[in-house]
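Problem: given the chain below (242 residues), write out its structure.
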Amino acid sequence: MSNTSSHSLKLIHVNTACEQCRVRELCLPTQLDDEAVSLIDKLVVRREPLKKGDYLYRTGDKFQGIYAVQYGALKTYGITIDGREQITGFHLAGEVVGLDALDESIHPCNAVALEKTEICQLPFEKLESLFHDLPSLCGNMSRIMSREILREERVLLMLGGTSAEQRLARFLLNLRKRMAERELSVDQFRLCMSRQDISNYLGLALETVSRQFTQFQDRGLLDIHNRSIRILQIERLQELAE
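Solution.
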């Protein structure tokens, strides 16, 4: 097993109960009764908060459970045959990571914190033991897996055969949609990822992404201050994405 940051090894009980968690409806979208939520809450543990750059898990680590982002953000990435980092996703509060290790019980990629991040861990073997008593929970897990598959399909659509302008517009609109799901400001938000990460994810050169951001601002679509983004013309951005 690969070595993991000491910050990601210590486990503590979650301070915020599931029923009080502000992103519960995203990682547990099914309407579960109080007893079911209480049973799940007893299983949940949380890794010691990750600092920026800390690893939740690394490629080759043994699968121990699935993880819900309670606060902060992660990126997942793999290493290509020629040794390059390839980012496979950005994961925000309320989203689940680690499902891709279910098949072989080994994590096929790395997950690293983009900022201070708090994680809830659901040990999968214990979770499975609840499926018989809580059929709704099993259905909920299926929906979560389906949601992740759909997210991957949207990434392919975002990247497939589009210009740099379209890719960046679609990326920003995707972030806006995810902010809306969290009842956060949708037209003004802070990017948790660097432009280098965005360019890697979108399959573009860093210079191209920087140039597109500048053009969007010059054309009055965005107001940009470092990583703070304000969308000024949502309709125009949607037209570019299409």
